């Protein structure tokens, strides 16, 4: 039996009121012996005993009246009459946050306890909460099947998506009476602020099992992440730059940071860290061998939550030269008006060392190019747009440079999905360039203030851009309009510069900062592309049949081997049942996709473990306040099913009506007993 308004059942405590009143107002009997009544003792004892018995029955009737009245108001129902089968959903957190301190073992034990307490009539769904947006909820056939499902679960090494798991469970249960058991250490990283938590419906009972412990995490740890300044490099001294970010939890300390390849240490620095603070630094090195180079950034001797947190792996791609194609949208005999002339001149200054640049008047075959620059475009054929879109999606970089002769009505349809923003028109007026917060690291050292004449990029005209909400704005004009917009498209990037790089909008190409600005634009063009050389443990790789993932490999085996063998025989190959490849252990992996082999660096995310845990009350607020404490219940079936359906169910059951009938009978008995007691 269930109740439409289960919260009302707490008022059954009022049934104790008649009992308390009876006890407080009971008759106080004093025994007095005197001669005139000594022969009535037996009769008096019999009458007193009968009266006490009637008063006790009357007290119990009044208590039952109160309890039945509350039950009637709570409106009892049977799920069988509604055609529903109760559902129990067990969500077991299998993220990286469950690895330290025996958390995962406690989670499995808690899940077994829940299964042992469930009635046999309930449908049981079990899901592993990993980094996927929506976990697969598998229905257990029986208790043995449920035990096998729990036994096969392992932490996948990724950041758990607890929000997606709750949303999937709520969607699966629908309006059925259900209970969702979330078994987790409640790491804060599992509740990203960018995702929306669907409120738990009134028919659902949310039970939060917090298996985290105060002593699970060491009190003082260091977390490490790193990123290559450019993923594709050309051979040369000092060509490697790696930005490293350290997060310190605990007392102040000094940490040694080291970067190495298979040949040995490339750079090493000692960094002082403040208490509970962060530090950043840049490590440098020289890579001279063409190919994919595995790199390891380590903090030897520093305390970490998990052992692998002291190492971060990277893969740098060293190529002979970056091959660029520069398409001149409308060539002009006057170099000052040619949209590509000054760009080609700037790249020619360094093309012998870093870039191989081809000048084209139309879109060339893009095989073998890493970047494409289209200067002053007017119109593109549909076939050209399709080829460029495929080039960017496969990892290429596209830079579109606008000029005063543009026609928005012709240009926007021609660029289509290639441009990260749409062009509204051309704006006349002097403006200067400035870096935004996103572009500060790359451009702030080039673009100076308004009073620095040598480092001001000034233009007499620029394009108005719109619909750039889903893109990153790296540069802005002095009037706060977007100047350089970038968007990720597949594995590559598309960039749009809202002004010309020729003399049609001023003398900027003749200024000293023109050359470094163009070079930085090209670096951003190919460095911003995502070649998927670095992944987080547990992340899904959407690949196809025949793809293989071998590893993890040690640094020496990963370097320079065309077909390395897995270390210690540990290999995962082929695509799993979900059509995904997943690396659960940090290390280097050999990834074969479409008969192309590449090296993949897989790292654990320190935030998945070191992020602060939430309390059950925090989770309650995230799910819309429907949870109450650790064992939270929410009722109100009528709001979900509709009043008509509930009323029909009540007519079939008649439970509420039987309560009213019983109340009426008890009232009659109560009145009769009250009269009998009063006469005595």
Give the CATH level 1 class of the largest domain.
Answer: Alpha Beta
**Count of helix runs:** 16
Overall shape: it is: elongated
- Main beta sheet strand tally, sense and closure: 9 strands, mixed
Q: Tell me the domain tally.
A: 5
- Derived structural class: alpha/beta
Number of strands: 31
Low-confidence region ranges:
449-454, 528-532, 561-579, 625-653
How much of the sequence lies in strands comes to 25-35%
Protein model, in words:
β16, α6 and β17 form a beta-alpha-beta unit. This protein has 680 residues and is an alpha/beta fold. The radius of gyration is 37 Å and the shape is elongated. The protein folds into five domains: 97 residues, no CATH class; 154 residues, von Willebrand factor, type A domain (Rossmann fold, 3-Layer(aba) Sandwich); 92 residues, Sandwich (Immunoglobulin-like); 206 residues, 3-Layer(aba) Sandwich (Rossmann fold), CATH 3.40.50.880; 70 residues, no CATH class. It is built from 16 helices and 31 strands. Helices cover 27% and strands 30% of the residues.
């Amino acid at each position: 039996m269930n109740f439409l308004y289960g919260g009302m059942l707490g008022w059954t405590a009022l049934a104790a009121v008649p009992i308390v009143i009876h006890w407080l107002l009971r008759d106080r009997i004093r025994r007095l012996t005197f001669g005139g009544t000594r022969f009535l003792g037996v009769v008096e004892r019999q009458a007193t005993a009968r009266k006490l018995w009637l008063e006790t029955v009357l007290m119990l009737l009044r208590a039952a009246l109160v309890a039945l009245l509350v039950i009637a108001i709570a409106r009892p129902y049977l799920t069988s009459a509604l055609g529903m089968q109760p559902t129990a959903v067990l969500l077991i957190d299998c993220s990286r946050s469950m690895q330290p301190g025996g958390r995962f073992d406690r989670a499995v034990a808690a899940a077994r306890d829940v299964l042992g307490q469930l009635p046999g009539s309930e449908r049981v769904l079990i899901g592993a909460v990993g980094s996927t947006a929506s976990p697969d909820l598998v229905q257990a056939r029986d208790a043995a099947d449920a035990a096998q499902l729990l036994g096969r679960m392992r932490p996948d090494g990724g950041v758990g998506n607890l929000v997606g798991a709750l949303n999937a469970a709520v969607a699966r249960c629908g309006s059925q009476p259900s209970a969702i058991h979330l078994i987790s250490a409640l790491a804060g990283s599992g509740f990203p602020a960018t995702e929306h938590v669907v409120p738990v419906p009134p028919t659902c009972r949310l039970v939060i099992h917090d298996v985290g412990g105060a002593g699970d995490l060491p009190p003082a740890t260091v977390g490490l992440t790193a990123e290559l300044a450019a993923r594709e490099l050309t051979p040369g001294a000092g060509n490697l730059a790696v930005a490293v970010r350290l997060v310190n939890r605990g007392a102040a300390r000094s940490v040694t940071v080291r970067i190495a390849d298979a040949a040995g240490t490339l750079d090493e620095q000692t960094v002082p860290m403040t208490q509970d603070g962060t530090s950043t630094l840049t490590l440098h090195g020289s890579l001279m061998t063409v190919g994919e180079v595995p790199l390891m950034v380590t903090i030897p001797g520093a305390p970490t939550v998990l052992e692998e947190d002291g190492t971060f792996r990277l893969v740098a791609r060293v190529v002979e030269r970056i091959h660029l194609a520069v398409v001149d949208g409308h060539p002009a005999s006057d170099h000052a008006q040619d949209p590509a002339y000054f760009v080609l001149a700037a790249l020619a200054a360094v093309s012998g060392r870093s870039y191989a640049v081809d000048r084209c008047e139309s879109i060339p075959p893009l095989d073998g190019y890493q970047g494409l620059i289209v200067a002053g475009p007017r119109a593109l054929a549909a076939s050209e747009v399709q080829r460029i879109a495929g080039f960017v999606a496969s990892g290429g970089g596209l830079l579109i440079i606008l000029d005063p002769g543009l026609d928005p009505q012709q240009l926007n349809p021609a660029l289509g999905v290639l441009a990260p923003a749409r062009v509204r028109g051309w704006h006349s007026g002097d403006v200067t360039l400035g870096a935004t917060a996103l572009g500060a690291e790359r451009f702030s050292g080039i673009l100076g203030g308004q009073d620095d004449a040598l480092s001001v990029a000034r233009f007499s005209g620029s394009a108005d851009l719109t619909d750039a909400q889903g893109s990153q704005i790296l540069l802005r004009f002095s009037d706060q309009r977007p100047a350089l917009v970038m968007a990720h498209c597949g594995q590559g990037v598309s960039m749009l510069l809202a002004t010309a790089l020729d003399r049609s909008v001023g003398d900027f190409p003749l200024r000293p900062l023109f050359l470094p600005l163009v070079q930085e634009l090209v670096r951003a063009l190919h460095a911003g592309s995502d070649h998927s050389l670095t992944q987080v443990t547990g992340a899904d790789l959407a690949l196809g049949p025949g793809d293989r993932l071998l590893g993890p490999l040690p640094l020496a085996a990963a370097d320079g081997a065309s077909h390395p063998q897995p270390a210690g025989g540990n290999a995962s190959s082929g695509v799993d049942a979900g059509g995904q490849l997943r690396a659960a252990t940090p290390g280097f992996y050999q990834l074969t996709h479409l008969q192309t082999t590449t090296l993949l660096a897989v790292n654990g995310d320190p935030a998945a473990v070191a992020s602060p845990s939430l309390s059950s009350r925090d989770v309650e607020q995230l799910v819309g306040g429907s949870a109450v404490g650790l064992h939270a219940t929410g009722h109100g079936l009528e709001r979900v099913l509709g009043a008509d359906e509930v009323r029909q169910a009540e007519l079939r059951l008649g439970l509420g009506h039987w309560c009213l009938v019983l109340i009426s009978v008890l009232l009659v008995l109560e009145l009769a007993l009250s009269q009998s007691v009063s006469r005595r």
